[in-house]
Amino acid sequence: MNIRRAVPASLLAAATASTLLLTGCGKDDKASASSGDGGGKVDVVAAFYSLKFLAQQIGGPQVKVTSLTKPGAEPHDLELKPRQVASISDADLVVYLKGLQPAVDKAIAQNHHNGTVEATRFSPLEDHGLEVDGTHDHAHGAGDGHDHASKAGGDPHIWLDPTRMAAIADGVGEGLAKADPAHAEDYRNRTAELKAEFEALDNDFKAGLATCRRKEFVTSHAAFGYLAERYGLDQIGVNGVNPESEPSPARIAELQKLVRDKGVTTVFFETLASPKTAQTLARDTGATTAVLDPLEGVEDEAKDDYFSVMHANLDALRKALGCA
User: Fold this and answer.
1) Which one of 65, 93, 149, 280 is CB 3.0 to 4.6 Å from 155, fit for a cystine?
2) What angle do CA 125, 270, 134 make, to 5 degrees?
């Protein structure tokens, strides 16, 4: 026979109070972690690598940064999984570039209720003098080449100009300061330090590309319009801003003539897209091939970062353009 003993009222009251206290602490800890206040970290979701880099460098130990585009993946046609949509909804801050990844734009509009940093607010897009003919967007530069821009409002590759990255860094720093006021000074200090590094990189490019025998460079992915404008070069794009687009036979014939007429020695391709067209063009014209990285994704982030890749791009351009 089971014997039930009465629990003293004093013990029951103490147990109830302890339970309520533990429950309350759990809720406070969760709220603290979400807001970045106290022992938790600010939860930041970045759309792709270059924006992730900014958030990591500025956020430092106070943030946890997740990229929606996995390392080594091409971000233009990103499709989001349900868990990624949920991460956007739950994040304290989302850093993205409107128009580059429609799935991200849609998920933010429908699900995100906290802070956002939208890159083009701090560095507006340009079309590099494009004229829309109803089918393609063609830019006719000094190199008589064609560049292609997004019909969403211009070329999205603003991060390839270090001065534009510095402007976006200001936005990220203020976004983090708003999400986590307790560490606002830390974010602003790291923003200033990072902007100084972008200024040094800009000076390296200006000095390194100041005295070159050629100004025209051919690249399979027309992602370098902002870089070309910043440093007085002429980009000749084989494909458009979407690296998966394919040039027509007429475009290939035009490119072959341009390469020969301009004395182009190198046709650039990128690591995240097929080099086939660039290799064919180089073979047909006697040019060589090399990598020019648009920094849409870094395959090994333990080995490379934004600055190391940009310096590698500078070295590749100097060699191809015959710079002193």
Assistant:
1) 149
2) 45
